[in-house]
Design a protein that fits this description.
Blueprint: E1 9-15, H1 23-36, E2 42-44, H2 57-60, H3 67-79, E3 82-91, E4 94-102, E5 108-112, H4 122-125, E6 135-137, E7 140-146, H5 153-156, E8 172-176, H6 184-198, E9 201-205, E10 208-210, E11 216-218, E12 222-224, E13 230-233, E14 239-245, H7 247-256
Parallel strand pairs: 1-2, 2-3, 7-8, 8-9
Antiparallel strand pairs: 1-14, 3-4, 4-5, 6-7, 9-12, 10-11, 12-13
């Protein structure tokens, strides 16, 4: 039986068609979709959902005291749920692709995307994060990440943590993304790989439509269980789906198949220039 403090978790995936460089339209659009998910514990939006994935930081970046963060805070309070997604945020002269874990009480946690997508020049326009974030919700330990981070298994490696209810560093890895359709096969494969190797649930929320760079997005948002099976896998159109994650299958799998016991011990050291 799961520990009493690890309860079923209701998560809504909001797979939307983000409007290009139009924050007011995106606030209206995603606000409407989030309100339809009222009743969930956690509502997940795509990466840079108020602007699209853009290297034009002058057009897309907001500040921590700007309209985007204030709107997200008010929306989380309105629907009484954690709302998660990333925004382009300018801070102290640097722009970050910053994921927000916005709680209904107005407080938040944040994670700056660590791995910047150099094939699109993101590393020349944005600053990279230096620390992982693990947050807790209804007894679940959640690791929120952003898009390209999915390709880096060392950064994402789950570890045994006896003090945690689920027995590991995290129980659910969460990826918000703008992952283009031409690379949809790696997206679908890597979501499964990260779940299997880390003995954890994995959720990926991608966008759909075509952006201002004429890149198409196929969606493929998904919920993957710890053995790599898709509990939910969306198509290439706007969709909103809600799933209920149960702790018992996760914990029994970890007990039945304790691969963590044979994992290699290691430490991540970031370079001075990172």
């Amino acid at each position: 039986m799961p520990p009493v403090n690890m309860q079923p978790l209701t998560v809504s995936l909001v797979q939307g068609a983000t409007r290009w460089h139009d924050a007011p339209a995106n606030r209206d659009y995603y606000g409407m979709l989030v309100r339809q998910a009222r009743g969930s514990d956690l509502i997940v939006l795509p990466e840079t959902f108020l602007s699209g994935f853009s290297n034009d930081t002058r057009a897309s970046a907001e500040t921590m005291d700007g309209e985007g963060v204030a709107w997200l805070r008010a929306l989380a309070a309105e629907v009484d749920a954690v709302v998660c997604g990333s925004l382009a945020i300018s801070e102290n002269g640097t722009v970050y692709n910053r994921l927000f874990w916005m709680r209904p009480d107005g407080s938040h946690a944040q994670y700056d995307k660590r791995h910047l997508f150099r094939m699109a020049g993101e590393h020349t326009r944005y600053g990279g994060g230096r620390e992982r974030l693990v947050v807790e919700l209804k007894g679940w330990r959640v690791l929120p990440q952003v898009c390209y981070d999915l390709r880096f298994p060392v950064w994402l490696r789950n570890r045994r943590l006896e003090s945690a209810a689920g027995g590991m560093d995290y129980d659910l890895a969460l990826f918000v993304a703008n992952w283009p359709a031409p690379r949809r096969q790696p997206w679908r494969t890597l979501l499964r790989a990260r779940a299997i190797e880390n003995l954890a649930y994995v959720i990926g929320v991608n966008r759909v439509g075509v952006d201002g760079n004429d890149l198409p997005y196929a969606g493929d948002s998904a919920v993957i269980d710890p053995i790599g099976e898709a509990l939910v896998e969306l198509g290439a159109q706007e969709q909103l789906v809600t799933v209920r994650l149960e702790p018992a299958p996760l914990l029994s799998h970890r007990q039945r198949f304790p691969a963590w016991m044979d994992a290699d011990a290691f430490r991540i050291e970031l370079g001075a220039g990172d």
